[in-house]
């Protein structure tokens, strides 16, 4: 690819930055807490307005959960039956009261090359980056842009992992997707940009202990303490963590009992387990459920184990690595590096990777997602996006997508 094209592309993208940051400022100014359905819908309408000049038609789909806002799907039909799916989400984790309490709002700091604010990197900056990429493709690679079928899928409830979004997206891709590109923030170290190529799956469980209540003073010996028995079960569960197999068990909450002068008859704990390998996750689940099969002693409570939900793993596959190769080549052409990384956290990639080869972390760089606090000594800063990451990351995506679609061979 000719050097002057890459220079022209980056110069053009740089010229779009004022408008891009204005769109981002407007998006960040809307509180879109998942539970704030009105705000999420308002942001969806603004996002549709943003992409309208590029020829994208909006389709709003109500969530199956009435407390959440509408999912947004923006489509532009080309010749392909399998669309390229560009994934973002509309919701954030910040209640309006928290934003006000911490004075957390849009703030530009040119000296730091940062813009602060709720959702700047998770993931409103990613939405704006999609807008920059598609605009560049329309200008510099019109054949790619016109011939490709595009679907921008914006989840209204990603932060709570409501699963209906993946179902609705799959319905719009009956033959699968040419690629699934997720624009969560992508960290960088110097000139090395991290591209996510796999994510752990998760299973959530509740362990319950059912004992026998008794007066703690006059008939303590007649009671069976559910809390004590639960603690034994929790220790067994936590001991299943196996870093060599990249399996983690996290006991997140525990509760039981009522008053101090009563032997507690009920207690429960909730935990999650995560692993990249679906087999490892299934085996760990079976091991956890086996705790309940152990015959209790007379002094022990009955233990029950219940699975509360599962999120599929996105394991690293050959087709993912082949897709990543386009981004690695694009980065090299721009004098950058692209690194394939795995993440333990969940994203829409976990639920959409079955549609086609998938990459994540394609959004701009930043840090402190889900944080709103700022300390006087600077040890805590709220969520921010790095403004100087937009142009190189957009250029990398543009070059990679053109190669992926095989339309541009030499320019």
Write a brief caption for the model:
By secondary structure, the protein is an alpha+beta fold. Helix content is 35%, strand content 24%.
List the helices and strands and how they pair.
Elements: H1 3-28, H2 37-51, E1 57-61, E2 71-76, E3 84-89, H3 96-101, E4 107-109, E5 114-116, H4 120-140, H5 142-147, E6 150-155, H6 164-171, E7 179-182, E8 188-189, E9 192-199, E10 201-210, E11 214-215, H7 226-238, E12 248-256, E13 262-263, E14 266-275, H8 278-290, E15 302-311, H9 318-333, E16 337-343, H10 349-352, E17 358-359, E18 366-367, E19 384-386, H11 390-405
Rounded mean pLDDT is 95
Stretches with pLDDT under 50, minimum 5 residues: 407-411
Cα shape: elongated
Write out the strand line-up for the largest beta sheet, numbering strands in chain order: 1-2-6-3-7-17
CATH class of the largest domain: Alpha Beta
For this structure, what is the CATH homologous superfamily of the largest domain?
Zn peptidases
Structural class label = alpha+beta
The biggest sheet amounts to: 6 strands, mixed
The topology string of helices and strands comes to: HHEEEHEEHHEHEEEEEHEEEHEHEHEEEH
Distance between the termini: 5 Å
Could you characterize the architecture of this molecule?
By secondary structure, the chain is α+β, with helices and mostly antiparallel strands. The protein has helices at 3-28, 37-51, 96-101, 120-140, 142-147, 164-171, 226-238, 278-290, 318-333, 349-352, 390-405, and strands spanning 57-61, 71-76, 84-89, 107-109, 114-116, 150-155, 179-182, 188-189, 192-199, 201-210, 214-215, 248-256, 262-263, 266-275, 302-311, 337-343, 358-359, 366-367, 384-386. It has 2 domains: 3-199 and 313-405, Zn peptidases (Aminopeptidase, 3-Layer(aba) Sandwich), CATH 3.40.630; 202-311, Alpha-Beta Plaits (2-Layer Sandwich), CATH 3.30.70.360. Helix 4 (120-140) crosses helix 11 (390-405) and helix 9 packs across helix 11. It contains 11 helices and 19 strands. Mean pLDDT is 95; it is low at 407-411. The N and C termini lie close together (5 Å).
């Amino acid at each position: 690819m000719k050097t002057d094209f890459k220079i022209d592309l980056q110069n053009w993208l740089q010229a779009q930055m004022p408008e891009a940051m204005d769109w981002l400022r407007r998006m960040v100014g809307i509180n879109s807490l998942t539970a704030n359905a009105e705000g999420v819908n308002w942001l969806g309408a603004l996002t549709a307005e943003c992409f309208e000049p590029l020829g994208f038609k909006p389709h709003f789909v109500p969530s199956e959960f009435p407390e959440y806002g509408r999912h947004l799907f923006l489509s532009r039909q080309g010749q392909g039956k399998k669309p390229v799916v560009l994934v973002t989400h509309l919701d954030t984790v910040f209640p309006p009261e928290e934003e006000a309490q911490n004075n957390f709002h849009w703030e530009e700091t040119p000296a730091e090359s940062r813009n602060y604010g709720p959702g700047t990197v998770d993931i409103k900056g990613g939405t704006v980056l999609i807008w920059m990429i598609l605009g560049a493709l329309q200008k510099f690679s019109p054949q790619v842009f016109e011939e490709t079928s595009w679907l921008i899928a914006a989840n209204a409830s990603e932060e709570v992992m409501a699963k209906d979004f993946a179902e609705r997206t799959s319905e719009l891709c009956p033959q699968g997707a040419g690629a699934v590109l997720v624009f969560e923030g992508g960290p960088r170290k110097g000139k090395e940009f991290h591209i996510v190529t796999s994510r752990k799956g998760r299973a959530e469980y509740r362990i319950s202990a059912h004992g026998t209540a008794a007066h703690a003073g006059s008939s303590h010996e007649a009671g069976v303490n559910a809390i004590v028995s639960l603690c034994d079960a929790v220790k067994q569960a936590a001991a299943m963590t196996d870093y060599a197999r990249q399996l983690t068990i996290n006991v997140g909450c525990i509760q039981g009992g009522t008053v101090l002068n009563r032997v507690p008859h009920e207690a429960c704990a909730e935990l999650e387990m995560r692993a990249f390998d679906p087999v490892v996750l299934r085996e760990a689940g079976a091991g956890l459920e086996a705790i309940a099969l152990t015959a209790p002693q007379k002094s022990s409570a009955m233990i029950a184990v219940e699975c509360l939900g599962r999120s599929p793993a996105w394991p690293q596959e050959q087709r993912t690595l082949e897709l990543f190769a386009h981004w690695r080549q694009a980065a090299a052409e721009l004098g950058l590096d692209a690194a394939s990384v795995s993440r333990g956290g969940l994203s829409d990639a976990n639920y959409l990777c079955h549609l086609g080869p998938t990459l994540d972390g394609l959004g701009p760089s930043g840090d402190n997602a889900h944080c709103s606090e700022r300390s006087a000594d600077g040890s805590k800063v709220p969520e921010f996006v790095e403004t100087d990451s937009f142009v190189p990351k957009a250029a990398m995506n543009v070059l990679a997508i053109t190669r992926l679609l095989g339309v541009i061979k030499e320019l």
